[in-house]
Write a sequence for this structure.
């Protein structure tokens, strides 16, 4: 088995906690992009590693070798001219590992398909529920006494708010809440959530990025709302009051719909009320070191997967007599 396949599969053990630590020291928008990109790179690298591992084992099967016009004795000799896959013919480890990789790929494919179907179904039901409500542009008001408000992605995206939520807030707080949900739509924050969910489906260790990403997106929208209304205390009051009003609401909103009432609300309110002091020289150096470590993890994971793919390609060409 090619040792280049190991780093993409194990790198999330180190990269996930490093990414979480770095994101905690960044502005919300930068943190959201960092976490989403980290999840995407690690998921793509680990999935490619599984594909290559399964392909490596499949090439040892005579029907597959014949289909690819491979010279099977050369492929299984595993000695000369096979690049990084010099041990390709070591069936003792390669075949069981390839079988496990094939099963994992099948499970991932099924989970991703199911998640995509569930996501589309939830959005369809949510949009159908807003079909008969009072709508004004991007705003859709549901006649419901339960307080709730969320940003519903789609074409066009809509801010869905219930009459119960409107009654629970004062006029200025309503404006801040709507600005928060409008920021979710403008920033396409649902795409970040989808990327994180699919990445976690591809590699279980990447589930650790979902909570900090959700928090970063809510903080991003909080800051946008504070800028829109020009009052951080008003934005904090709107978030807190909306969360208190919706705490007993059994919401049926889609999983990709973001709402100001979710996440660690007290922590978000505190962040709005108390400005973060600028980082000192020591903190800045520590942040740069953590960023360098994370960049190294991502580069190593991606480079190892690409190198393994190149090695397999070269091995197949040699086995084809090219």
């Amino acid at each position: 088995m090619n040792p280049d396949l190991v780093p993409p599969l194990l790198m999330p053990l180190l990269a996930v906690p490093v990414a979480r630590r770095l994101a905690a020291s960044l502005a919300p928008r930068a943190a959201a992009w960092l976490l989403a990109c980290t999840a995407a790179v690690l998921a793509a690298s680990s999935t490619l590693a599984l594909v290559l591992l399964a392909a490596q084992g499949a090439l040892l099967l005579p029907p597959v070798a014949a289909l690819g016009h491979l010279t099977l004795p050369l492929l299984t000799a595993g000695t000369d001219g096979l690049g990084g896959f010099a041990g390709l013919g070591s069936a003792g480890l390669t075949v069981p590992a390839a079988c496990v990789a094939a099963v994992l790929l099948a499970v991932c494919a099924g989970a991703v398909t199911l998640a995509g179907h569930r996501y589309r179904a939830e959005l369809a039901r949510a949009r159908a529920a807003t079909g008969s409500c009072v709508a004004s542009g991007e705003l859709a008001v549901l006649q419901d006494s339960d307080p709730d408000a969320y940003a519903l992605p789609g074409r066009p995206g809509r801010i869905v708010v219930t009459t119960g939520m409107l009654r629970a807030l004062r006029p200025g707080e309503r404006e801040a809440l709507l600005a928060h949900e409008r920021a979710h739509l403008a920033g396409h924050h649902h795409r970040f959530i989808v990327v994180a969910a699919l990445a976690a489906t591809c590699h279980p260790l990447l589930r650790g990025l979902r909570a900090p990403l959700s928090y970063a997106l809510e903080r991003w929208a909080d800051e946008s709302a504070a800028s829109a209304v020009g009052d951080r205390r008003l934005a904090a009051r709107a978030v807190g009051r909306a969360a208190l009003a919706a705490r007993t609401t059994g919401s049926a909103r889609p999983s990709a719909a973001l709402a100001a009432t979710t996440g660690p609300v007290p922590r978000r309110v505190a962040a709005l009320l108390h400005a973060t002091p600028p980082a000192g020289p020591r903190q800045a150096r520590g942040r740069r070191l953590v960023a360098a470590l994370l960049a190294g993890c991502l580069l190593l994971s991606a480079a190892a997967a690409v190198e393994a793919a190149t090695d397999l390609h070269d091995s197949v060409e040699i086995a084809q007599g090219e």
User: Anything to note?
Assistant: The chain has 13 helices and four strands. Strands lie at 134-136, 139-142, 149-152, 158-162. The longest helix spans residues 91-129. The chain has one domain: 3-319.
